[in-house]
User: Fold this.
Amino acid sequence: MTSVTPNMHVAIARPSTVSSCEGSKSSIAVFSSNVKRTSCAKLKSSCYIASTKLLSMNVKSSPLRFGKMITKAMSDSSDTKPLPGLPVDLRGKRAFIAGIADDNGYGWAIAKSLAAAGAEILVGTWVPALNIFETSLRRGKFDESRVLPDGSLMEITKVYPLDAVYDTPEDVPEDIKTNKRYAGSSKWTVKEVAESVKEDFGTIDILVHSLANGPEVSKPLLETSRYGYLTAISASSYSFISLLKHFVPIMNPGGATISLTYIASERIIPGYGGGMSSAKAALESDTQVLAFEAGRKHRIRVNTISAGPLRSRAAKAIGFIDMMIDYSSENAPLQKELAAEEVGNAAAFLASPLASAITGTVLYVDNGLNAMGVGVDSPVFKDLDIPRDNRN
Assistant:
C-alpha cells in the first residue's frame, strides 16, 4: 500500500553520508526464480506518514509464509564484461531517491535494488527527519538492512535535506523558515536540491518519487476539508511534477523516473480517505502526460508502480493495514504477503535498459489483486470450488 507521509522535504547537500563498508558493491542484479521458504520479512513503505487516528477496527492478522524473490549480484563493479542473458545492469548510473527517512520504506527497498544492480545512490530526506536518519546511518543502525546480495553494504553517496512541498525559497512561509525542526538546514526546496545535485554530481539517470502526505487520510472524503484535500494533492501528486520539472534538465537522455501509487486511485478502498485516493488518481494521470512531454523533449521515461499493501510504519498510520494484508492474502491470485523487495526489484527493472520502451505505464506489483473483480472470501462464494494455495 502506498503510504501517506508528512510533507516531504528536499534541499541542500548536507555532510556526505557514506557507508564505511569497503567491500565491493554488486553491480548487476538478476531476478531469480529460486524460491526460499521463509517467514514474512519486514515490509517497508513510502517515506513519511502524517499522524492519524487509528480506525476502530478489531482486526487480527496471522502472518503467512511466502516464497521470497531473490536478487542475485552477478558481477563486481570493476568488471565490464557483458554477462550472458538479460541482466539488470545499472553500472555507471546515478539515482536520486526522494522520500527515504528510515530503512522501513518503499524508497529504501528501491534504493537497495538499484544499488544491487550497480547504481550510485543519492537520497532526499524530509528536513525534520534528516538528523535522525543521518545519525542512524553513521552509527550503523541500518547496517543489517543495508546488506546487499553479495554481502556488502549499500552505500549512500550523499543525503540531501528535502521538502518537496516547496518548489523555491520564495514559496516557504515564515513559520516554516523559523521552525526549529528546520534549523541548521538550508537549500532544501526542490529547485535548490536539484541545483545542489547538479553542482555536486553534474547529472543523474534515475529519479524516484517515494513520498506522500495525507493529513486527513483517516477521514472519509465527504468529511475531508479543503486544506486536507489540497495538502494531499500537493504533497503526493504535484511534488512529482515539481521534482521532474527541476531534475529533468540534469537527467541524461534515456533516463527513467518512477513514482509509487495505489489501487485506491481507481477502486473504492474504504478508510483510505482525506483526498489520498484523488491524489493517487492524479499521479497516475500525470504519469501519462509527463511520459509524453518528458519523452518528446528529453527522452526520459515516466512510469509508476501500484504496490499492494505492506506492513510498514507509514501504512500503520492509516489504521487498517493488517486488514488489507489479510484481504489481499485471501483474495489475490498469489496468496502470499508482499515484500518491499519485490517492489524494489520491479523499480530496478523499470529503471534499466530492459524497460527502454516502457513509459506512461502503471505497473501493478500486488500479487495480482488488481485483476480481481470480487472478494472470493465472501460467504456468497462458500459453495464454489475456489482454488487455494494450500502451502500457506
About this structure: Residues 276-298 form the longest helix (23 residues). Residues 1-27, 30-76 have pLDDT under 50 and may be disordered.
